[in-house]
Amino acid sequence: MKVLKDILYKVSLVSTTGDMEVQIQDIVFDSRKVKEGSVFVAVPGTQVDGHDFIDKALALGAKAVIFEKLPSELQKGITYVQVVNSAKAMGIMAGNYFDNPSEKLKVVAVTGTNGKTTTVTLLHQLFMRMGYSTGLLSTVENKINEEVIPATHTTPDSVSIQALLKQMLEAGCTHCFMEASSHAIVQERIAGLKLAGAVFTNISHDHLDYHLTFDEYIKAKKKLFDELPKAAFALVNGDDKRGMVMLQNCKGSHQTFGLKTPAEFKAKIISNTLEGLELDINGTLIWFMMIGAFNAYNLLGVLGTAVLLGEEEEEVLRELSGIKGARGRFDRISIGGVTAIVDYAHTPDALDNVLKTINGVRTGVEQLITIVGCGGNRDKTKRPIMAKIAVQESDKVILTSDNPRFEDPMDILKDMQTGIGVSEIRKSLTIEDRKEAIKTACMLSNKGDIILIAGKGHEDYQEIKGVKHHFDDAEIVTEYLTQLTQS
Ligand SMILES: CC(=O)N[C@H]1[C@@H](OP(=O)(O)OP(=O)(O)OC[C@H]2O[C@@H](n3ccc(=O)[nH]c3=O)[C@H](O)[C@@H]2O)O[C@H](CO)[C@@H](O)[C@@H]1O[C@H](C)C(=O)N[C@@H](C)C(=O)N[C@H](CCC(=O)O)C(=O)O
Ligand SMILES: Nc1ncnc2c1ncn2[C@@H]1O[C@H](COP(=O)(O)OP(=O)(O)OP(=O)(O)O)[C@@H](O)[C@H]1O
Ligand SMILES: N[C@H](CCC[C@H](N)C(=O)O)C(=O)O
Ligand SMILES: [Mg+2]
């Protein structure tokens, strides 16, 4: 329990009415979760406006309300606090409520279209191996040391972030590595966090449904760097033309990594096979278990972060060499001579990278069969582009359903089909049922062939009309390939 006035420390206030000494039980932004003694924060959303639920929150026992637009009627005995930006105010309040754990931890936020989960997972594993108690906030899972706390978002809401950081601190953690999605940056989920550093992996086509233009998407990522304190480091991919844009108004120390342009952290790829990567880093040859040139970038981001946090480069490279990365990223399953690769590529750039990696190491005699779909209620413009990349880079493509959410899967598939030219149409099949699509790919495959199952990676569900049904690409392909070897 905390006094309202204390949790409002550092929040930009417009006006206040009522008792600022009122005791607060918790901070809630969903009226349905309000309890006696909560402070309700009214946040304008994409679907509805939290201001419309102030009465509901008060009926359930909220003692104070934080808002941007003054309600038409004020109730007696309630404290009303008007702020400029309620989402931002909530982040700062959550920090104060949980005694600002980020001031006592080294928190590093990683942003970029692709590679966030891979980077933070490698960092978590690396720091654990180097003997630190470490926290992780990622798409796949949140972790306090090795304890797993299921993740619902890539970046949780601000109250959950601060609560998790507090638990990390109580468990003795010294570091936390977290993903900062563009949605989270815009929605101020990371407001109130003191960051030791921020990392930019890359930016390419995604989420235009939410940000509307590519410029707005870039601006969202840049906001993380614009708001970084002077003492923090900003580490960006110098080979991505938007890397320098991130640094334009950044007060933190400017650092870059890259394979092509001069950078503080640089490497040369010596070999790139399905077994791993061999890199030349400052004249030392090191072997990594990560596959694909794009992972050389992720490894450099990790190396740079660790060194900027004060670790010895030599020890970092030694430990990093033995780490596998995140679940569902280039996971290889070999049964009966067929290799299936389960990968979370759900953007055009990621799909292109993964397919080019496979094409770069295959002999060309075998078939490459790609199974791919696109999520519903997400950026529609990436659908034809992903289908086009898939047919260009594969021998056969099966278009199938991903997470249709509230859309008709056939509508999504029709959008994808528009990206396939007449000359390539013979290479593609459309099978809406993802299980059937995987089964068909297995039946079409011969010894030596490669099946790429893209888009869902670690996900163990398929989301249809608000319900998550158990679905695991790796589990299904294993089942069918095993059946085929036994028949
Ligand atoms: C589009 C989006 O990002 N939406 C997020 C946003 O919700 P919203 O703005 O749509 O909220 P809303 O439903 O309009 O409601 C507005 C406000 O009214 C409140 N409300 C609503 C109803 C009610 O009865 N009472 C009430 O008080 C809500 O709690 C909310 O505060 O804020 C919510 C609380 O933090 C998030 O849970 C929600 O994530 C939704 C579920 C989601 O699917 N988000 C995805 C797109 C997302 O965030 N993805 C990124 C990763 C993307 C990537 O890089 O790949 C992530 O970080 O996970
Ligand atoms: N540095 C990179 N550049 C381009 N593609 C990458 C990179 N790292 C990973 N990928 C590809 O992108 C996919 C997603 O990787 P990862 O989960 O690390 O990204 P993410 O940024 O966390 O994604 P999300 O936005 O869903 O959280 C991988 O499965 C791989 O296909
Ligand atoms: N974080 C991403 C995940 C996409 C994964 C893909 N399987 C899909 O459902 O579109 C998003 O919410 O857009
Ligand atoms: Mg992620």
UniProtKB/TrEMBL annotation:
InterPro entries: Mur-like_cat_sf, Mur_ligase_C, Mur_ligase_C_dom_sf, Mur_ligase_cen, Mur_ligase_N, MurE/MurF_N, UDP-N-AcMur-Glu-dNH2Pim_ligase. It comes from the Bacteria. It is found in: Cytoplasm. Catalyzes the addition of meso-diaminopimelic acid to the nucleotide precursor UDP-N-acetylmuramoyl-L-alanyl-D-glutamate (UMAG) in the biosynthesis of bacterial cell-wall peptidoglycan. Belongs to the MurCDEF family. MurE subfamily. It comes from Algoriphagus machipongonensis. HAMAP family: MurE (MF_00208). Residues 24-94 form the Mur ligase N-terminal catalytic domain. ATP binds at residues 112-118. Residues 328-457 form the Mur ligase C-terminal domain. Carboxylation is probably crucial for Mg(2+) binding and, consequently, for the gamma-phosphate positioning of ATP. A motif (Meso-diaminopimelate recognition motif) lies at residues 402-405. Pathway: Cell wall biogenesis; peptidoglycan biosynthesis. PANTHER family: MUR LIGASE FAMILY MEMBER, UDP-N-ACETYLMURAMOYL-L-ALANYL-D-GLUTAMATE--2,6-DIAMINOPIMELATE LIGASE MURE HOMOLOG, CHLOROPLASTIC. It is an enzyme of class 6 (ligase). The modification N6-carboxylysine is found at residue 221. UDP-N-acetyl-alpha-D-muramoyl-L-alanyl-D-glutamate binds at residues 31, 154-155, 181, 187, 189. It catalyses: UDP-N-acetyl-alpha-D-muramoyl-L-alanyl-D-glutamate + meso-2,6-diaminopimelate + ATP = UDP-N-acetyl-alpha-D-muramoyl-L-alanyl-gamma-D-glutamyl-meso-2,6-diaminopimelate + ADP + phosphate + H(+). The keyword Cell cycle applies. Keywords: ATP-binding, Cell cycle, Cell division, Cell shape, Cell wall biogenesis/degradation, Cytoplasm, Ligase, Magnesium, Nucleotide-binding, Peptidoglycan synthesis. Residues 110-305 form the Mur ligase central domain. GO terms for biological process: cell division; cell wall organization; peptidoglycan biosynthetic process; regulation of cell shape. This is UDP-N-acetylmuramoyl-L-alanyl-D-glutamate--2,6-diaminopimelate ligase.
